[in-house]
Specification:
It is a multi-pass membrane protein. Belongs to the ligand-gated ion channel (TC 1.A.9) family. Forms serotonin (5-hydroxytryptamine/5-HT3)-activated cation-selective channel complexes, which when activated cause fast, depolarizing responses in neurons. InterPro entries: LGIC_TM_5-HT3, Neur_chan_lig-bd, Neur_chan_lig-bd_sf, Neur_channel, Neuro-gated_channel_TM_sf, Neuro_actylchol_rec, Neurotrans-gated_channel_TM, Neurotransmitter_ion_chnl_CS. This protein is rod-shaped. Helix 5 packs parallel to helix 7 and helix 7 runs antiparallel to helix 10. Helices cover about 50% and strands about 20% of the residues. The longest helix has about 55 residues. The chain has about 450 residues and is α+β, with helices and mostly antiparallel strands. The chain has 10 helices and 11 strands. The strands form 2 sheets. Strands 1, 2, 3, 5, 6, 7 and 9 form a 7-stranded mixed beta sheet that branches. A 4-stranded antiparallel beta sheet has the order 4-8-11-10. The chain folds into 2 domains: about 200 residues, Neurotransmitter-gated ion-channel ligand-binding domain (Acetylcholine Binding Protein, Chain: A), CATH 2.70.170.10; about 220 residues. Bound molecules: 2-acetamido-2-deoxy-beta-D-glucopyranose (4 copies). One 2-acetamido-2-deoxy-beta-D-glucopyranose (NAG) binds next to loops.
Length: about 450
Amino acid sequence: MMRFAFLLLVISTDGVTSKKVCSYLDVLDYLNLTKDTSAFKLTRPVLDYTDPTRVELDIFLYAILALVEKTQTFIPFIWASMKWKHEGISWDPAEFCGITQIAIPRDMLWRPDLFIFEMTQKDDSPLNLYILVSSDGTVYSEEDMKVVSTCKMDVHKFPFDTQRCNISVASAIHHVDEMRLLPCSNSSRATQFSREVLKTQGEWEFMQLSVSSFNITYNNRQWENLVYTFTMRRRPLLHVINFLLPVLFFLCLDLASFFIADHRGEKLGFKVTVLLAISVLLLILNDILPSMSNKTPLIATYCIVIFAMMLLSLLETILVTHLMEKDSVAQEKVGPADDWQHKKEKMKTQDGTTEDKKQTSCVCICQVSAAEKQHELLPMAEEDNSRIQSGDSQVLLLILEELKELQKTVDLRLSCRLEGGKSSLWAARINKAFLIFYVTTVSLFLPLIFIAWHT
Ligand SMILES: *[C@@H]1O[C@H](CO)[C@@H](O)[C@H](O)[C@H]1NC(C)=O
Ligand SMILES: *[C@@H]1O[C@H](CO)[C@@H](O)[C@H](O)[C@H]1NC(C)=O
Ligand SMILES: *[C@@H]1O[C@H](CO)[C@@H](O)[C@H](O)[C@H]1NC(C)=O
Ligand SMILES: *[C@@H]1O[C@H](CO)[C@@H](O)[C@H](O)[C@H]1NC(C)=O
């Protein structure tokens, strides 16, 4: 009982001694923010209209969601924090239980009408519900937003490129005498902080975030413009594996095809296949790159030169094949057909019975082979052999003659082949010269273009 009374006493004395108000609502009541708030958002919150409102701005990078070459779009996810002074709002924290800050709904106070120049789509990410007001009237507002912005990308060095994209912030209607835009952090601080908070970068490696300020003049008035420049470097690995290396491999295949034998259409077929494979790869490139007229991307040069080299080598192969074909046709004409004709004529001049002789010789050969077969089949019939030998010695002589003739032709043809004919000689020369030209061009071009890529 005694204890309870003591407790009551303590409470009552406490209530008497600290007559402090400790609720946010009291602060708002004191500021007249609970009754009619429209006065607080009607106009720029300055007591003297000639004073500019100083808005301090910070933008940090949370994530690089996309950076698309084809559509020239840059989609970062950024965190923007703003700070300005609302003159007319102030309280003494000592009077309100030491309350120095209160959070109020964002649409209760005036807010700077900032917008982003490059933004091409309205931001649909959820807004922060509250803004912070401190006892001296400074208002803090923070926003996360996905900015779909346009960015003029330079794809000259794709895929070893570095891109710079701007996000420019300015007031829509307040010119520089009414509103000043000031960066809160300098470039090095912004870069460092962005590195700390950056969650995902994807294909891109964040390098730098720099801040600069411009005054743009329009209708004889100046607007202050804060430009945040994001510098990002592409990670080229995927494109190297996906595109540059395969093209290089096909080039190697094309080079290797010089060691495929020239005759018949095998080499030609191989080269056409390689060329087709490269054209499929070119389609991929068409998907990635925008059609920019001012400057040819190095990767296009790379493809066009390699494609052209392959095309030239294909044409060269066609030429060489044609030359060899021509040669073999000529040989065939000069070869057996002509020989026979020649021989026939020679025989005709010797005696009129060419056809007969040929016929007989043929028949003889048949007979001989038949005899030989018989000889093989029937070794018993040896007594007949002598008779046949004496009777067919004439025929054997004829055969010998024929064989000699044949050997001569074969010799002639062999020597012909060794010489290779005029056309195949040229074909071999062209082949060699083109191989040297091909290898030199490729070994000059590849280092040059890689140097161009890396500077
Ligand atoms: C709130 O309004 C009352 C009159 O309606 C005025 O006397 C008082 O000064 C105002 N408070 C502030 C902080 O302006
Ligand atoms: C980005 O802003 C810088 C100034 O900070 C300017 O020099 C550059 O041209 C701008 N780039 C683009 C793509 O607008
Ligand atoms: C940037 O600001 C930080 C403090 O925020 C300061 O230490 C640093 O020296 C500044 N850098 C430059 C280049 O002004
Ligand atoms: C823009 O104009 C304001 C006011 O005239 C001036 O203080 C500021 O230095 C200017 N900014 C630039 C970048 O010229």
